[in-house]
């Protein structure tokens, strides 16, 4: 039998308890993995083990897929009207609302993000996502298409089937809801793998999914590693669709595996190296506050982070001085502490990766303007870091670091800013700061990015699609656009008088 994880929080931000199974969740039951193996979950603030959980492999993915297929054929899919699917999702959102503080505390413990951001950002957005797609469950309509009087032609939007979903560690609960909400609303069943670094909120959600009344097999959660359980999802011949959020490198592997097996439908939300363009007519204090948010929010562990900050040469010195002072004022420490802005990186692996990029920047000749070192003596904390005097070919300018590291670069005019901003194989997001709305819109339209923010950054809404150009991904999540990821369009032709 799987173990039960019980934990009592006694922090300035939250006092309370949590308790849930650490097993795999397959066909409505919490079970051990077939191989009986477990792995450790580590608190990134201390580097110490919090608990260990059951580890799934390709064998467990097989069992979960069979459960999802049987549920899709009998208890879900076209067997359940959209209104009922929407009711269950609304119930799930209500249950999440009831334990929002607990979910935020688990997220902070497991991921290292500050409790305030987890509670007021991630959890609120996650609940809104479930509610938003609950409303779509009975409104995803096809169309009647005019042809001629001898035929009735119409389309149906039908669920695809069994969906494999692999989510990252930077926004564990939010990414889970981005995946399951549109899939369930449109009638699909799910086999989901959370990140091996941050599985705890997904496991806590199991109890809420059961309590909401979802039948067994609709949602299956298999903990495990990307190289085993994740790879098994990507290459499984009886999974009809795979959705992945993570690195571009892994996204390529998933797309290749999907193509080599059954050409399953694929959506990918991948990496980014987002530009943040600040013109000389911008509100400089507003731009600095947003630029700080853009590069250091969530400890820099954000795919849309505005880590390439382009500043007009006329205001470069003033911007850099004020930006530096603001970065120096950020409080780093315990995610449950008072007024803490930045917690630890998620793991030792990620800590080492970020530090290797910082070393690369120094070796390549960039100026380490601020930070660049470990913070504290335990856990995976890194100082907010700024480089200047960079070249376009440097790794810190071209590659996604996924940590609190940014580069500040001068530009001469609008064309120069756009040229430098678009000089990347990524295209997830971009930001423009200017009081001239004509200029701001003109530049936003010229940027090769799936999201363009004007006078803000890293500001998302459930109703608005999110996804990338170029090597930042395929497909869109969020809003009505996400429904297309999980539906197949069937055209029906009815002969009402045509002879042959």
Q: What are the defining features of this structure?
A:
500 residues; alpha/beta; Aldehyde Dehydrogenase, Chain A, domain 1; Aldehyde Dehydrogenase, Chain A, domain 2; 2 domains; 7-stranded mixed beta sheet; 6-stranded mixed beta sheet; 14 helices; 36% helix; Aldehyde_DH_dom; Ald_DH_C; Aldehyde dehydrogenase; aldehyde dehydrogenase [NAD(P)+] activity
Describe this structure as you would to a colleague.
Keywords: Oxidoreductase. The active site is at residue 269. The protein is an alpha/beta fold. The protein has 2 domains: 4-270 and 473-489, 3-Layer(aba) Sandwich (Aldehyde Dehydrogenase, Chain A, domain 1); 275-461, Aldehyde Dehydrogenase, Chain A, domain 2 (3-Layer(aba) Sandwich). It has helices at residues 58-74, 82-98, 100-111, 115-136, 172-185, 200-212, 226-234, 248-260, 284-296, 316-328, 348-363, 395-398, 414-421, 437-446; strands spanning 4-10, 15-21, 24-26, 29-31, 38-43, 48-54, 144-145, 151-159, 162-166, 189-193, 219-221, 241-245, 265-269, 275-278, 308-312, 367-370, 385-388, 405-411, 429-433, 451-454, 473-474, 487-495. The strands form 6 sheets. A 7-stranded mixed beta sheet has the order 16-17-18-15-14-19-20, sandwiched between helices. Helix 2 crosses helix 6 (200-212). The longest helix is centred in the first third of the chain and has 22 residues, at 115-136. It starts with a strand and ends in a 5-residue tail after the last strand.
């Amino acid at each position: 039998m799987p173990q039960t994880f019980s934990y009592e929080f006694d922090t300035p931000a939250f006092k309370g308890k949590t308790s849930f199974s650490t097993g795999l969740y397959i066909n409505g039951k919490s079970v051990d993995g077939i191989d009986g193996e477990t792995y450790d979950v580590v608190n990134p603030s201390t580097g110490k083990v919090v608990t260990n959980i059951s580890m799934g492999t390709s064998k467990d993915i097989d069992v979960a897929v069979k459960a999802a297929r049987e549920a899709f054929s009998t208890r879900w899919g076209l067997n359940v009207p959209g209104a009922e699917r929407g009711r269950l999702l609304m119930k799930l959102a209500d249950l999440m609302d009831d334990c929002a503080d607990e979910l935020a505390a688990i997220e902070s413990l497991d991921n290292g993000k500050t409790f305030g951001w987890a509670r007021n950002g991630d959890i609120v957005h996650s609940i809104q996502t479930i509610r938003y797609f609950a409303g779509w469950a009975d409104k995803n309509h096809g169309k009647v298409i005019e042809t001629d009087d001898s035929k009735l032609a119409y389309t149906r939007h039908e669920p695809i089937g069994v969906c494999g979903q692999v989510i990252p560690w930077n926004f564990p609960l939010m990414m889970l809801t981005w995946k399951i909400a549109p899939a369930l609303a449109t009638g699909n069943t799910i086999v989901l793998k959370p990140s091996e670094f941050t599985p705890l909120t997904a496991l806590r959600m199991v109890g809420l999914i059961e309590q909401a009344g979802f039948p067994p097999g609709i949602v299956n959660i298999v903990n495990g590693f990307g190289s085993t359980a994740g790879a098994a999802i990507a290459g499984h011949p009886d999974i009809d669709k795979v959705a992945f959020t993570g690195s571009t490198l892994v996204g390529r592997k998933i797309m290749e595996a999907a193509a080599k097996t059954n050409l399953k439908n694929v959506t990918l939300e991948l990496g980014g190296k987002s530009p943040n363009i600040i013109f000389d007519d911008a509100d400089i204090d507003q731009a600095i506050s947003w630029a700080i948010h853009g590069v250091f929010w969530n400890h820099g562990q954000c795919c849309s982070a505005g880590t390439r900050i382009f500043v007009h040469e006329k205001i470069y010195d003033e911007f850099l001085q004020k930006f530096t002072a603001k970065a120096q004022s950020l409080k780093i420490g315990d995610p449950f502490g008072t007024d803490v802005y930045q917690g630890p990186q998620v793991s030792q692996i990620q800590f080492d990766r970020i530090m290797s990029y910082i070393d690369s920047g120094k070796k390549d000749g960039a100026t380490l303007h601020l930070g660049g070192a470990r913070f504290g003596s335990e856990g995976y904390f890194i100082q907010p870091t700024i480089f200047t005097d960079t070249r376009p070919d440097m790794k810190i300018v071209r590659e996604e670091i996924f940590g609190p590291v940014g580069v500040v670069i001068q530009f001469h005019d609008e064309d120069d800013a756009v040229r430098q901003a678009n000089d990347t194989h990524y295209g997830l997001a971009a930001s423009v700061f200017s009081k001239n709305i004509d200029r701001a819109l003109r530049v936003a339209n010229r940027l090769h990015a799936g999201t363009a923010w004007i006078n803000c950054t890293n500001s998302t809404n459930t109703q608005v699609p999110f996804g990338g150009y170029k090597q930042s991904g395929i497909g869109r999540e969020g809003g009505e656009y996400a429904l297309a990821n999980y539906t197949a369009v069937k055209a029906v032709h009815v002969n009402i008088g045509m002879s042959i």
